Structure formats: C-alpha cells, structure tokens
## 1
Amino acid sequence: MWADVIVIGAGLAGMTAALAAKQNGAEVILVDRGPIGTGTNSALSNGVFSGPVSPERAEEYVELVVRIGRGLNRPGYVRQIARDAPAAVEFLCSLGVEIAKTPGQWAVRSPKPETIPGVTLVQGVVRQVLARNRIRVERGVYVSTLLQASGRIVGVCGHDLCGEAREIRGGSTILACGGAGAIYAKHDNQASIMGQGYYLAACAGLDLWDMEFVQCYPIVLDEPDMPMMMIYPPYPQEATLIGPAGEDLLQKHDLGNINQAIIRKRDVFSAMLMTKGKAGPICMDLRAVPDEKWEVHPLSLLKRFRAECRQRPIRISPAVHFFMGGVRTDEEGQTDLSGLFACGEMVWGLHGANRMGGNALMECLVSGRLAGLGAARLASAHPDLPAAPISPVAGEGPAGSERVDLRDLRRRLQDAAWEHAGVVRSREGMVAGLRKAENMWRALRAARFDTPKERVLQEDLLGGTFTLRAVLTAGLGRLESRGGFLREDYPAQDDAQWLRNSRVSWDPASDRFRVEYVPVEVG
Ligand SMILES: Cc1cc2nc3c(=O)[nH]c(=O)nc-3n(C[C@H](O)[C@H](O)[C@H](O)COP(=O)(O)OP(=O)(O)OC[C@H]3O[C@@H](n4cnc5c(N)ncnc54)[C@H](O)[C@@H]3O)c2cc1C
C-alpha cells in the first residue's frame, strides 16, 4: 500500500494533518488502532481552545504561556502557535465545526448538553475526513514500527485486529499518537493512550524532551466500580470539597473556589488533595447545586452519575491528564529525521513545565496543519523513495517465548507510575520506580503473545513501560520543583541551575537511557 502522506493517529491533530496534506494535493492514508476520531483523547476534551483572540494580543498570550510554563517553553514554537492560532480556528470553522468566542478563548459546545464537547468536535472533523476521497481511512490498524531507507522514514508496518501484517509505504509519515496518560493507575485519558508515539519515535532514533513534566488534573471522579472521568469545569459556586475528617478543604487552605484553585494553583492544589487523600477519601459535595444547573454544560455531562451526585458527596482524586514533553519539530512540523513529522500532544515545546488550559487543542490544530502541509510538500518534492533497501528502524516488537500475565503487568505498571512518577516525587521513589520499570521491560521483551488482542496489549505495555522509564530518567536528574514537576526532596524552583530542558536519548542496542539538561532556547 502506498500514500504520499501517512498519518498515524486519528485524534484532532492527526485528522487536521490529514486534511491539510490533502488540501495540498497529497494522497493520504490516515491510520488508527481504533475508530477514527471517537476513540481518542480529543473526543474526551472539553472543547476549549486558547490563543490570542486578536493579533494585537499575540505577545500577551506568549508571555502568559511562558509564565505558566515557568520559562521552559521553546519561544519560537510558542510564537508560531500565537501567529497561526486565528487561521487555525478559521480552518476549523471552515470544516463546519461551530465554535464560540468566549473571553480569551474559543469553545465548542454540543447541541445536546449531555454530549461531551470533544465528541461534537471530532464528529464534525471526521465528517470532513470521510467526505474527502483522497483520504483513505484505515481503522483498527496498530502501527508497530517505522520503516527507513538511507536515513529517511519511508513508511510504517504493523498489524490489524486479526493479527494480519500490514505495511504502508509513503513519501512522508506523521506521528499523531497523543500522550501517555493511561500508563498511570489514576488518569482521565482513553485507556489506549500509552505512549506508543514516544516509543516509535525513540526506536527511530529521536530524542525525547522534558518527559518529566506530566500534568495532573485535580478533580477526577474516583468512585469504586466506575470509570475514572474528569469532572468537567467550570464548577458551580455551590460545590465544596470535603476532606477525610469532614473538613471544608477550600476554606481550610484558603483556596477561594474550585475554579480559582484550578486556574491559579493547579499543581499545589493537586498535591494538597494527594496528601489529604492518604488519610481517607476526598469528596466533592454537589448536593446544594440547584436543579437548573444540572441541565446545562458542564454538569449535564454527569448525567449518568447524576442520581449519586445528588444524593451524596462523590469521591474525587487528582489524576494524570496530559504529557508536556515529547519530540522536537521544526517550523514545518518535521522532526530531526527526514520524512518523519509529528503533531499534537506528542510534540514538545509549547507548554514548558506546565500547560495553560485550552492550549492542547490549539496545538493540535496549529501543529497538525503545519505537519500536514510540510509532509505534503516533502512528498511532492521527493516523490521517489531512496533506492536503498527498506528496513524497520531499531526496536523490537514482542517476540519472546515466556508466558506473562499481561493484565497483571498492566496493573503493576500503572501502580508503579502513579506511586513513583505521580503528583509528588522523590529521589528514593523514582529510583525504586525505575527499577520496577526496568524489570517489567525485561519481562515484556521475553514474553510471548497467543492472540492478536494479547499482542496489542503487549505492545501497549512496551510503549508504556518505555515511557515510564523516560519520565523517571528525566525526573531523577532534575533537582528542583517546577510547574507540574514536584519533588518533596527539592521543593523549590531553582532558576539559577535549572532553566534547562531535559533531553533523553535511548540506545536500543545497549538498552541504555542517557539524559542531559540543555539551557533553554532564547528568542
Ligand atoms: C478529559 C480531558 C479533557 C480535555 N479537555 C481539553 C480542553 O478542553 N482543551 C484542551 O486544549 N485540551 C484538553 N485536553 C487535552 C487534549 O484533549 C489532548 O491533548 C488532545 O486531544 C490530544 O490530541 P492528539 O490528536 O494529539 O491525540 P489523541 O486525540 O489522543 O489521538 C491519538 C490517537 O492515536 C492513536 N494511536 C496511538 N498510537 C498508535 C499506533 N501505534 N497505531 C495506531 N494508532 C495509534 C490513539 O489510539 C489515538 O486514537 C483534555 C484531555 C482530557 C483527557
């Protein structure tokens, strides 16, 4: 199978890239392991986009993003997002997605209040993807490795849900695989978001930047026997938070209301809830919320759990939400490898040490368009593949012979990530976490799979374990706390020493990770 441009991942970033490449005349194949659009984190989103609402506000936006990112952002990339944001929003509107301007942001709202805005968003974009006859959609195809020839990426191979091998060759390849929230025991992501993009990139030889910065969201439903899900903001003024001893946490910690705490002090808020949560459950009490507020967004999204929410306080917890780190791209969305582009959550540089709310979806739009256009241009400039033999990049899929309980291993991976690389970390904890991750990695490499389903789980776990090792490797050397990265043994931010980005490289032959801390870019 051949395409000018292959896109891996059909979230907002991947679909935007596919549409942009197609608009530039490319034949595109859009691949996802699941359904197009709806199995993604983009579909879970609250539909909020940040950016400068007018060109005169661009510098103000850049300053705010860098302030929230505590100076670790890539200034050139932040400016690019600021510059291209209005055109990106126009592009989204041109696809027929209704988007309302609110003060300082844009928001998608669902026609039905009980539909998650992200679902409305992706359904609008999916319709356009399916309507374009030069975008071929491949659902249920899991990409396991990239193909290379003469140092250029020239395609992908993987398998479908029946385990049949699939190979696609192409002029350019775009990684749009999202983050890795589901490697944690507590998260609000789709269960399949396990860091596969970081692993594919690292196997191809790319470095990963700022992987220690993982954002938690403070208010996620944490009821036994219910799926964890974000309780979507904004919160009604009647909502209170009750600590394990029955105390009013907002009052006790002088946090104002929940919305203020989330916007101004998200990380310390999460850390406080974590610490308190060790003594017993933390609950959100919504019983005083009047009837009419349950009918409108966002409480309308709790419809399924409404009965419980109105009868008793419901358990909540902080949970992992977003990965700030990832791969480096240039102003055309290309990585350091010829023919390989990236977009969306797996790209590094916009967020620094923490992400401003609404910036992830904006990044999907802007970086998706850049990567799509860049990939189409490259494919048309170099239509012929190198004459050299084509081979998979380094890194192995599962091929061992030992029987391993993969479900148990997933639980152990998620517990280790949450315990050792979660809201607040320490040297001791990260060292212990790294040891566990390395043991799991070895077990996975030696494991065998018997069914296509097991193969997928095993590959997810390889990606997840690899990602956890990268997160812990980058975190261990950073001797400070900054943004979303909190250490109890180094609680202060240290600008004199640590205005640096971490850069993790992995050598597949020796299976060694290396980290260096590079002074931040200026400009
Ligand atoms: C509950 C929630 C609410 C949020 N709300 C907002 C918000 O309002 N505003 C905002 O800015 N951000 C928000 N975010 C963050 C934002 O939604 C995500 O960062 C963004 O949607 C990521 O988009 P993406 O296209 O990069 O990846 P995704 O949407 O996650 O899509 C990636 C796709 O790639 C597929 N894939 C991965 N690896 C492979 C492989 N090897 N082979 C085949 N397919 C593969 C995945 O299965 C997935 O379908 C929210 C996040 C969550 C979890």
## 2
Amino acid sequence: MNPPFRKIIHIDMDAFYASVEQHDHPELRGKPLAVGGSQRRGVVAAASYEARNYGVRSAMPGARAAEKCPHLIFVKPRFDRYKEISNQIRQIFYDYTDLVEPLSLDEAFLDVTENKKGLPSATLIAEEIRRRIHQETGLTASAGISINKFLAKVASDINKPNGQKLIAPDEVILFLEELKIEKFFGVGAVTARKMKSLGIFNGRDLKEKDLLFLTRNFGKSGLHYHRIVRGEQNSPVRPNRVRKSIGAERTFSESVFGRDIDGELNRIFEIWVNRIAQNSARGKTVTLKYRYDDFETHTRSSTAPNYISTREELGEQVDQILESTAIERPVRLLGLTLSQLEPKASGREGTQLTLEF
Ligand SMILES: [Mg+2]
C-alpha cells in the first residue's frame, strides 16, 4: 500500500568546498576564503561564509571577488578530497535508504518513506543524518524535508547553514502560495524577470495563471510550473548510480595515535560490519585507509578468494592487513571499505543494472 505522501529529504552540505578547506587547514578557519578563481580567468567555485559577507559568490570571476574582498584567500580545489567526503556522507545516507539521488558532490535527495531503520519521522532522520555527518566528517549540512523533491530542495535553503526545515503536508499549499517566484527551484534569473513582467511575483500569482497561459509563455516548462505550484511534482528519487563499495571512515578533528588508533578502528569496524549486514552485501576486497597529519594517505588491501560478509571473515582480513602495516605517526583519518561487491541478482538495484547495460 502506498502511503499518501512520500517523505523526501534534501541534504546539502554548507559551503562545501570552502568548509572542507577550513576543516583540513585550521589556519583558514574564520577567514574569507575562495576555492578556485585565483587565475586571471578563473571563477570562484565556492566561497566561505566569511567571504560571502563581502559579497563573494560562487561562479564570480576571481578578479571581481578580489575587488570585493581585498584580503580574500584563494585556495586550489582538491576534488579528490571532496569526492572522498562525498562518498563518506553517501555511506551514511545508505544506512537509511537505498533511494539516494545525488545532485552533485554535496547534495542529494533521499526518499525515506520506507527506511531501513523503520523510523516514522523524516525530521528525526534528517537530524540524525546531520549529526552523523558532523561526527564523521567534522562538517555541517542543512536539510529540507517535505513531500516531494522540489519542496525539499527549497526547504533546505531556509535554515542554512547547519539547520533544517520541514514543510509538512498541510503547510504545502500556503508555503507555495507565499513563495517568491525567484525561489522556485528551476526558475533562474531570466525566467524570474519574465514572470515578474507578467505580473507573477509569488506562488499565488503563478497559481492564478492557467496552463494555456503558462505554456504559451514558457513552452514545456509551463506545465512544470503549473504542477509545482500545486505541490504536484512527484518525480521519484532515482538512485542513479550502482554502489561499488561499502565503507565506514572517520575524519578526526584532532589526530590520534597509538592505542587510540585501535579504539577508533574498532568503532569504525562495528559501523562497517553493520552496514554490510544491513545491505546483505558480500564482497572480496577489504581496504584500510589511513591519513597522516600532513595528508600523506595510505591504503592497504587484502582480497579474499571468495565473497565474504561475516564479522569473522571481515575481521580476519582486517587483522591480516594490520599485521603487515605499521602506522607510524598520528592519523587524522581512518577508514575501512569492502569492494568487489557481489552483483545483486534481484531487487531494485538489480533491475537498474539490467536497464543500464
Ligand atoms: Mg551545498
């Protein structure tokens, strides 16, 4: 039986690239910072909140940004690091649902109507996910919760940064009526200007226009606008990638060494084993990742002859790796991953796989 409403969460990391840089380089914290853009023709890929206070925005030419904020610090992007964290947060999402649709490295939709934890409240799930993202990566995220992707996406912006917003089913209609036209997801600056020239300033104005009027003025998008303003956007959350590994890793705000490494590794192991069990996954290759203070990163792998999944089998592989690995200095990141996963024969993932190939 389908419940009357879907429960959709949109998670969005706060000033993602800039926050990663400030997290990894404590000397940059509290300072106006732009990732990218230092080249003559470069543009800002992301700005820290301190830089935004000066009017620096992403997609702004670096020269313009430097004008607005003369002491702006430009940092080169490190996409490998952003991808790593992106993967880390996705592993958290998968603890709740397989219906995860990433929009970019730092944003995703989750359909938690039926979730793996059997939790009835999407609000609590969003809180839990944000708390865990912070624990495991040291970064903050914002969330929007509502009945469809459009509303969840709009909502996640409202209490940003480090906040969340629910638009409950009975609030949807009023919320949409009062929403400024430029806040509608999919309405860019040009469309917003056109809408205003037609007397459409908010959802209420938009709703008063009939479908014919909207399609005449906006083509195919007219139907989209006609629907979203009535809360009728119901495109499903599409898990658009096949999962290749199941991992658990943790970035520490203060590096750990010696016995503390064993303790942290045990905790990560527990989370990891549970994840693998919860997903009924089996795989062959176990990888330990550790990163020293100076970002030097090592991975050590061990591959089993057959698919493995139990705590004992996984533990055995980890022990084997540890026996031949010397972690010599304090580390700031530890992680365990199971890859070379057994292809799933049935279920949603399997269906997707058949369609894609
Ligand atoms: Mg973001």
